[in-house]
Design a protein that fits this description.
It is built from nine helices and seven strands, in the order βαβαβαβαβαβαααβα. It is of the alpha/beta class. It has a single domain (7-266), classed as Rossmann fold. It has a seven-stranded parallel β-sheet, with helices on both faces.
Length: 267
């Protein structure tokens, strides 16, 4: 996966999955523009790690939950580099809330921060690709929650499901320009946000219950993003790639199956 000579824009890259994507894409040879919200305490340390790999790194703080923030980000990224070749769109907003009690404004904020923001940044970058005549790559970070209806996560799951469908439609429309558009669905990934939400004991217990016996890591998602951004994935577009260590099927493994009795086997 050689991304030499390419420049990638990665949103939400201060920590967690976004950081994992930025680092793995840099390891593959690309220069990287990293973004996070204004005031993020994490961007500069991520930039230092990327530069330590010998790659150029441009830091742009902008609020990608708004159209104005996305415009600011893309314009600055294009102005400060030779142009964008790859996009990893990683904005998301999630708060656990029961359906019956969910304030309408929280539902709307979740859709805006998770689905609409993906539309804004990808539309702006795709137009940049078309204007340059570049066969660019767009990778959306979704979630297995797009397929799995978790309690208290109805808004986030709906937003991610919409993101998956939007990405497939975008892939169809951009195919004449040979712009690849794909989606990664992470499972349970060991990020700082998870440790802010769950106790260490809860996370350790959950890891032991997974088929891979561990949570995913940001670099697991980053390696998948680097692949989808590479020429090796030239014929892959409109695809959803789960990277979850079988999280979706954790209750289907033999660990959860009752042993067959002799008469059951004969039946």
């Amino acid at each position: 996966m050689d991304l030499s000579g390419k420049t990638a824009l990665v949103t939400g890259a201060g920590r967690g999955i976004g950081k994992g994507c930025a680092l793995e894409i840099a390891k593959a040879g690309a220069d990287v523009v990293i973004n996070d919200r204004p005031g993020s305490p994490d961007l500069e340390s991520t930039a230092q790690e990327i530069r330590a790999l010998g790659r150029q790194c441009t830091v742009i703080a902008a609020d990608v939950f708004s159209r104005e923030g996305c415009v600011q980000l893309v314009e600055q990224a294009v102005r400060q580099t030779s142009g964008i070749d790859l996009l990893v769109s990683n904005p998301a907003f999630s708060r656990r809330q029961a359906f019956l009690d969910c304030p309408p404004e929280l539902f709307e904020k979740t859709l805006n921060g998770t689905l609409a923001s993906g539309f804004h940044i990808s539309q702006l970058v795709a137009n940049h690709f078309v204007d340059r005549g570049t066969r660019g790559k767009i990778v959306f970070i979704s979630s297995v929650q797009a397929e799995m209806p978790f309690a208290l996560c109805f808004a986030y799951g709906a937003a991610k499901a919409g993101l998956n469908h939007m990405a497939a439609s975008i892939a169809v429309e951009l195919s004449p320009h040979r712009i690849n558009v794909n989606v990664i669905e992470p499972g349970w990934i060991d990020t700082p946000g998870e440790h802010e939400t769950f106790s260490e004991d809860t996370i350790a217990e959950a890891a032991r219950a997974l088929p891979w016996r561990r949570l995913g890591r940001p670099d697991d998602i980053g390696k998948a993003a680097a692949f989808l951004c590479s020429d090796a994935a030239d014929y892959i577009t409109g695809t959803v790639l789960p990277v979850d260590g079988l999280f979706r099927y954790k209750d289907c493994t033999l660990d959860h199956a009752e042993p067959l009795k002799a008469n059951d086997a004969q039946d």
